[in-house]
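Lay summary

Proteins are chains of building blocks that fold into shapes. Our project writes down both the chain and a compact code for its shape. Here are two examples, one after the other.
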Amino acid sequence: MKCRICNREALEKYCELHEKAYRNIVEKYDDWRKAMDISWKEYLNEIVKNPYTGSWAKEVAGQLLKNEDR
């Protein structure tokens, strides 16, 4: 199976690097939601816009926005 983003060998949906970014995004969402009362889509948009977000996380957030899955 290939990564949905970069076509490297995938663990499940993503390669090892994008999978780690995906897990971090999902884990941190509850903190953001509690602090800001923010939707999943708004959260992903914030990740993509944030200049301090790493490229792996931005790629995953962009892919999630495009495909609307979690």
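And here is the second example, written the same way.
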Amino acid sequence: MTDESINSLNNQTREAWNATAQVWDERMGDEGNDFHRYLVRPAIEKLLELKPGQRMLDIGCGNGLTTRRLASLGAKVTGIDFASEMINNARKRTNLYQENQELIEYQVLDATDETALLKLGENSFDAAVSAMALMDMAEIEPLFKALIKIIRPGGYFIFAIQHPCFNSMHISLGGELIENETELYTEYYLKVKGYLKSSKIRGLALENQPQPHIYFHRPLHSLLNTAFQFGFVLDGLEEPAFPEEIAARSNAIGWSRFNKIPPVIVARLRI
């Protein structure tokens, strides 16, 4: 893609997330949705090597959900997002509910802008985290290029994304009624229609989302090779699925029905 087309996609994405910010904040609140509570947060914290007082960068922080959680664990956290309305909501929630507000700073900052990221300071962070944001970014090369400089040597970057193998705009979930001699039951399945080619498609993250945003699908080899290109190595990986008890109590055909297929992948990349 040309720089002009990337900038256009980035501006469209920013506009969509600003429009969605209020609905997102109301839905996610301070605890997050089921994806965050059961999949993303536990997997991220399993890979964390956090010590009190360490400096963390939260990339694509949204309404500050992960930022506040890291601060509650004792980290000094800078949360960044390119959607100013998201940052406004993050600040409001932090001012209202967070006990350790002095550990948190928010900035409106575009994670696709290497120059802006570098202004955060060389070797300024012990680690960085991004919870479900990379698949919403028009390009990721500037981020990895900057992270290798602003994270201290030996530090790491943990990211959580929709699992590109199983959970993208190219897949569909379904159910089939099965009858045999002894029982009648529903068998749930996943159909993958595309994986290997990077692509972009508009979609909704939430019901009642006022404006669709753009999902940027990247197969694992594309995503990880970008990180490797700039000096990261992969040294931790989680593929969480919903617990059996969640699947058992769900009636709808949705991700909560699947306890053997991971809709999320969480990786730790180390410098």
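What can we say about the second shape? The helical segments are 3-28, 34-47, 65-72, 84-97, 114-118, 141-150, 220-229, 244-248.
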